[in-house]
Structure formats: structure tokens, C-alpha cells
Amino acid sequence: MVRMRWCSEAISLSLSGTHTALLLTHVSSSFLNKTSVLFQFHNHNHNHNQPFFFKFKFNNSFSSSSSSISLTHHHLKPLAARRIQNSSSTEDENNFHDFVVVNFYHFVFINDPQQLVAKHLSFVESEGLDINGRIYLNEQGINAQYSGPSKDAMAYVNWIKEDSRFSDILIQISPSETGHTFPVLKLRYKPSLVQFEGGTSNLPLLDPSMRALPLAPSEWRERLEAINDAHSKDCPNRDYIILDVRNGYEWDIGHFRGARRPNVDCFRSTSFGLSQEEITASDPLSNVDKENTNILMYCTGGIRCDVYSTILRQHGFQNLYTLKGGVSNYIKNEGPAEWIGNLFVFDSRLSLPPPVNHPQAITEGGTTIPVSRDDKFAKCYICNAGVSELRHRNCANLDCNLLFLCCSECVKDLRGCCCLTCTSAPRLRPVLNGERRYKKWHVYRDMDLPGKNLYLIFKKQ
After folding, report:
1. For the chain, first and last CA: distance in Å?
2. 61, 341, 406, 439: which one has the fewest Cβ atoms less than 10 Å from its Cβ?
3. Does 299 participate in catalysis according to the annotation?
């Protein structure tokens, strides 16, 4: 067990049990203002007295009555430690404003994914990379979403591209103004690169002919403009269907014009085109001519479309097309043309307006395409009023935690809860305003939350 006594100038540590006594010999005096800091230790129980390094990441939690620090650490090898230690203080201060989020995936056969996971972990640790997120590998390839300082994030990208199996990966990068968008790094083997009912190991993901044909963003835009122009002239093109392969709540804050809201709350339960009945109201592919209808599929980054297109191919759908790189790649290249609203993302940012990925879109003629401000489609889940802030929030009731879209009036009236019932729940967190998100329960356990003591009494019974 490590006990820490700290102030603004120094930290002292004492170790119990059989751990070796350590002497802290290097601490930055301004560490309390940082999200991480490098410590240099000496082990005086060893003759060589060789210094070694740990990089600590702080999660500060302060209240009027108490202060606490929770931390995680990474043991750094001397080379990586020196690289961090020698960085200038100005660079350290600016690093927080140079965070990025990196997304990529690739289907390729990997003979020994467990060994490859170990290799990736070794690289991240040896280089002391400050990256957090989800990086999954298995026999079918890799799927990665992570955040970090630009230097660290790109170091991993450049290293992975040295592997010929991943040399042609489409890398997507977007800025993060609030530092890390993921709490920890999960780099591990996972049987399915995406969650889907029954898993994906039995799907022909490694066969390009079984996946949908990818369309470049420019070609996708041309097709959408033609389809939507025909619809606006009351001449719907029944040979095309724009299929949103995301969740309904993602559609609620942004989507392509002409795409129906998917009646799905989790991708793993998606079943478009799989119904045995001839007509299903909630299924846009119900009663569709599988041989002649062109299905244009899109999702955030592309992987869900690639996975689901193999399922549709197995069920007889012939003309399947996907948006290469998904919506994020489209907005980067084409701007918000044919897109309405924001883009939902599965990290702490939750919602990205098009300018985040594409500050301004310029046509070939030099005309600037304005960002879509048509948010009249977005409705409060509680009162059905229009929502101007295209960003979901979690219910303040910890035991509900529902992700929902809410107007400012309902946030105030229901104290951040999704319904009247949740307002009387035993574990209510404080109402969050703006773009803040709730943290894990342990962050709130020492706070005087309404009903907490009553909850703990019932929990013990």
C-alpha cells in the first residue's frame, strides 16, 4: 500500500509490506496543475543505485472538506523517461492543447493476434506513449480509437504502419480541446472487432467481394445530391435507399438528408433486411428488390457498414455501397454538404459539429459551403420540444445513466434526470452543465449526495 502526503512543493511516499523503500529525487514544483508528471526514483537498497522512472497520471477530486488524488502509473525505460524529462516547460503547457483523437480499422488476417497484442503493448510502454482508448486485435484485423498528445498519438500510427499488413490503413484524426477523450488504454485481444449478436468471427470480413463497394466521399456526395434532388421534385428514386447503419440516438443529432432514423439502440441487435416477414414498418430494407435496389450504407467511421454489408450480402442483397471512412472522412473532405446537424462520437466529446473536422468546405468554384444549422429535427426526449444543443447527456440517476437528448428547461425541471421517477432515485449525481460528462461512481462516493445514506443502508441488507 502506498501512502502519500503532499503539498504544492513536494511528495513523500512510504511503502508498507515487503516493498523496497524509495527516495523521490525529482518532482516538478508545479505538478498539481498537470494531468501527468514524471517522477525519478532511486533505490538505495541496491548497490548500483540506478535511477528509474514512473509516469503518473492524476485524477484530482477536490471538495471543501477533503482533497484526494487517484493515480495510475507507467514504468518508463530510461530512453523514454529522458525524452519526457528533457521536454521544455513551455511544451508541457501546450501539450494539453495539442491532443488529438485517432480512429482507424483494417481487416487483414493475423496468424497470432495474442503475440501481436504483446508486441503493441511493449512498444507503447517502452516509448512511454501517453495514449488512452480502445485498441482491439484479433484474427480478422484491428480496430482502434484512442486519444493522446499529437506527438504520442502519431508515434503509434507511424510505428504500426511499418507493419506491411497495416501500411495502407486510412487514419482519421480530429482535435480534442479537453485533453484525453478516453479514461484508460485498453489494448487487448477481442474475439469481435465490433459488438454484434452472435459475434463476427463467422463473417467473411476478410473477403473484399463480400463487403460493400466503398465510395469515395466525392462520389457519395454526387449520388446523394442526385437522389435528394429527385425527391425534392416529387420524383423519388426508388432504385436507391440511404441506410443509416448507426443507432437511433446518433441519428437524432445528425444525419444525411434522405436517411431514415434507424429503429436501433445498439448495433449488435441491427436486423435490417433480415426479417422473414414481407413488410416491416421499422425496416427500410423490408420488401426491397434485392437484385436491383442500390443500398447506400453509412456509419461514423466505416467499420459497422463493412461488417453489416457481409451479412446483407449473405442474404441476397447485390448492390451494396458504403461511404469510405464513414461520415468523419466525408466531412473532412466534402464539408457538411448533404449533412444535417452534428456527428455523434463514442468518446467524451459525444458530439462534433462539422467545423471540428472541416473548418470550411470550399467547392471547386471557390464557394464556401456553410455549416448546416438546420437543427429543427432534433427533439427533446422528454417534452418533444426543439433542442438547440445537439449533444446528449447521461441521466443524473447513477443507476439509470440513460443517454438522452434534452432541452434546457427539462434539464432544470428534472434536475438532469431523464424522467420524473429518476428524480427520486437514491443515487443522484449533481446536474452537469455545458459539455461536461459524469465520471465513475467512486468520484461521487465521498460527496453528500441526496439519498446516498439510505441507499447504502438498503444495499447492506
Report:
1. 30
2. 439
3. yes
- CATH 3.30.70.100 residue window(s) in the chain: 95-193
Please report the DSSP string for 187-252 in residue order.
Answer: EEE-S-SS--TT-STTS-TT-GGGSPEEE-HHHHHHHHHHHHHHHHTT---TTEEEEE-S-HHHHT
Higher pLDDT pick, 383 / 458: 383
Alpha-carbon span 92 to 76, nearest angstrom: 18
State how far the alpha carbon of 411 is from the alpha carbons of 261, 419, 449, in Å. 24, 10, 18
Residues in the chain: 461
Given the residues 299, 305, 406, 417, the one annotated as active site:
299
101 and 146 Cβ atoms separated by less than 8 Å: yes
The answer on pLDDT for 448 being more than 70 is no
What is the structure's pLDDT at 153?
A: 97
252-305, pLDDT tens digit by residue?
Answer: 999 999 999 988 877 767 777 776 665 566 788 888 899 999 999 999 999 999
Q: Please name the fold of domain 95-193.
A: Alpha-Beta Plaits (3.30.70)
Bigger pLDDT: 138 or 352?
A: 138
CA 386, chain centre distance (Å): 26
Beta sheet of 141-149, edge-to-edge order:
172-176, 99-107, 141-149, 132-138, 185-189
Question: CA–CA separation, 273 vs 402, rounded Å?
Answer: 28
From the candidate CATH numbers 1.10.10.10, 3.40.50.11740, 3.90.226.10, 3.40.250.10, the one assigned to the domain spanning 209-369 = 3.40.250.10
Q: What predicted TM-score, i.e. pTM, was given to this entire model?
A: 0.71
CA angle 183, 184, 186 (to 5 degrees): 135
